[in-house]
Design goal:
Distance between the termini of chain B: 55 Å
Largest sheet of chain A: 8 strands, mixed
Number of helices of chain B: 2
Shape of chain A: globular
Strand content of chain A: 15-25%
Bound molecules: adenosine-5'-triphosphate, magnesium ion
Oligomer: heterodimer
Structural class of chain B: alpha+beta
Largest sheet of chain B: 2 strands, antiparallel
Radius of gyration of chain A: 19 Å
Helix content of chain B: 25-40%
Shape of chain B: extended
Radius of gyration of chain B: 21 Å
Strand order of the largest sheet of chain A: 3-4-2-5-1-6-7-8
Distance between the termini of chain A: 54 Å
Chain lengths: ~270, ~90
């Protein structure tokens, strides 16, 4: 049995890859899958904080690649779901600490251990780290914000996914690409100040797998170390839930795309 | 429109401009993709040469790499500026 590898990538930094990786991995685990989520951001470990397991990191990804620890020692079991594991990034400053062979060895090890999904949280950019995170992927979640530089970078990434990955090189059939639009603000879209879902879909020529609204609950969730998908009272959490279901093949309509209707007082006094 | 809206300065609706700019740059970058790495440099050096004769901008130059059965064709087009007086000959 081989695990399905999903890379979460974007090109541009700070658009919500780590937030998405944490929620996607948690959502897949909630659906009963055995999941590992790996932080590929060597030198800038962050996923552990968002997953809330930062104090339990003993060994990291690079330790496993270098044979200093076994996978079993380095995988951190999630405290909420016992079929979910985190592999932390190394804090080394050596950018060459990861190699293609090393990454392949770890991914093969996870397949052998019966994992259904491996979620790879890519670093920003199109350098080595981002390349290694996407190279073995079967699926890609391309995170994009409704903003010019993010949209342009995501087109660049979509191009790399269809040429610079193992699937592309072997002619194994294309990577399944999922475009995820995050930090969406329906009020600003309605005012014509922000690109709409349709605009982004038209520019990139691919439809979205989900739309995550801009939400203050995301910051609250990261403060608490609880992936936002577990916050069922927030639109962002619910939208991530829908997104995971779609990645698993379910058909669900998009939600939270319209600006809330303004009440009388808001119409008079603004707001 | 609310009373206070007159007092509050709102940003201009700019999403349309963003969309148009992205449409153009994405199409341009896609056409260069997969092509040789020297394309952008070739493009700007060509501009320098062309500029000696006519005044054109970088976005007037379009370079495409077309692949058909076994060989690649480098396609170059330059949109020349309108020639003054050419439209109305009296
Ligand atoms: N839907 C959202 N609403 C509000 N804030 C968000 C949303 N998604 C992400 N953020 C915030 O944006 C910031 C960047 O998010 P995140 O760290 O997930 O991005 P990243 O793409 O992983 O960044 P990097 O490229 O540095 O790895 C964080 O402060 C996060 O809380
Ligand atoms: Mg990140």
């Amino acid at each position: 049995m081989t695990a399905e590898i999903i890379v979460v990538t974007s090109g541009k930094g700070g658009v919500g890859k780590t937030t998405t990786s944490a929620s996607l991995a948690t959502g897949l685990a909630m659906a009963g899958k055995k999941v590992a989520v790996i932080d590929f951001d060597v030198g800038l470990r962050n996923l552990d904080l968002i997953m809330g397991c930062e104090r339990r990191v003993v060994y990291d990804f690079v330790n496993v690649v270098h044979g200093e620890a076994t996978l079993k020692q380095a995988l951190i079991k999630d405290k909420r779901h016992d079929n979910l594991y985190v592999l932390a990034a190394s804090q080394t400053r050596d950018k060459d600490a990861l190699t293609q062979e090393g990454v392949e060895k770890v991914l093969d090890g996870l397949s052998e251990d019966g994992f259904d999904y491996v979620v790879c949280d890519s670093p920003a950019g199109i350098e080595k780290g981002a390349h290694l995170a996407m190279y073995f992927a079967d699926h890609a979640v391309v995170v994009v914000n409704p903003e010019v530089s993010s949209v342009r970078d995501s087109d660049r990434i979509l191009g790399l996914l269809s040429s610079k990955t193992r699937r592309a090189e072997r002619g194994d059939g294309a990577i399944k690409q999922h475009l995820l639009l995050t930090r969406y603000n329906p009020v600003r879209v309605a005012a014509g100040e922000m690109l709409s879902v349709k605009d982004v879909e038209e520019i990139l020529g691919i439809s979205v797998v989900g739309v995550i609204p801009e939400s203050e609950n995301v910051l609250a969730a990261s403060n608490a170390g609880v992936p936002v998908i577990l916050d069922a009272d927030s639109q962002a959490g619910l939208a991530y839930g829908d997104t995971v279901a779609r990645v698993l093949g379910e058909d669900r309509p998009l939600r939270f795309l319209d600006a809330p209707k303004k009440g009388f007082f808001q119409r008079v006094f603004g707001g | 429109m609310g009373i206070l809206d007159f007092l509050k300065r709102k940003p201009e609706p700019s999403a349309g401009i963003a969309k148009e700019r992205l449409r153009i740059i994405v199409a341009q970058e896609r056409s260069a993709r997969g092509g040789p790495d020297y394309l952008p440099l070739l493009r700007s050096e060509l501009l320098e040469v062309i500029k000696k004769y006519v005044h054109v901008d970088l976005d007037a130059i379009n370079i495409n790499v077309e692949r058909d059965s076994g060989h690649e064709v480098l396609e170059l087009s330059v949109a020349l500026p309108e020639i003054k007086g050419a439209t109305q000959a009296t």
